[in-house]
Amino acid sequence: MKQTVQMKLIQEKMKPGVITRDGFLDPDRRNLIDILIEDDETVKRMGLSHQQVAQRMLEFRDAGMRGLGEFISIEPHFEVRVDSVRGKLPCPFGDPGIFPKTNVTVRNLERNEEITYTDLHIHLIGSHGFYEGKGSVFRLDPKSLVDTLEITGEEE
Length: 156
Ligand SMILES: [Zn+2]
Hints:
Elements lengths: L4 H9 L18 H14 L4 H15 L7 E3 L3 E13 L7 E11 L4 E6 H10 L13 H8 L7
Antiparallel strand pairs: 1-2, 2-3, 3-4
Helix pairs in contact: 3-4
The structure holds zinc ion.
C-alpha cells in the first residue's frame, strides 16, 4: 500500500541510530503502513484489539513492580520481573512524552516461554498498533505475545 508523507517521516525516525541504536524496523524493508496492516490483521483475527494487548502488558508491569527488580509470582503460573534502566525514549510517531526504559520480563511457567518488553512497547502497541519490524531485535510478535501472556480479552 502507498504510504503518506507523514508515515514516511515516521519511518525515517525508526531507522537504526536515530532514536535507538538498532532502530525499530531493520531488517524489515517493507513500508511502515504494510507492517501495521499485517499486524493489525493478525490481532483482529485473534478477536483482540491492540488496546487489550497493551492493557494486559500494563497489568503485568504494574504487578511486577512489587518485586523491586526480582522475579515475583503472579497467579496462576507467571513470574514477572521489572527492571528500571536509566534513560528515556521518545515515541517515533512523534507524540509528546518520553518513556522510561523499564524492562518487563514475563515468564509463563506452564508454556515455558519468556517475553521481555518496555514501557515504549506498551505505548507503541496500545496507541499505534505497532509491534516493530519482522526480524528486528525488539519486535514483539503479536501471536507470541498473546500466547505467552494468555490474553483473552475477557475481564479477569
Ligand atoms: Zn506514540
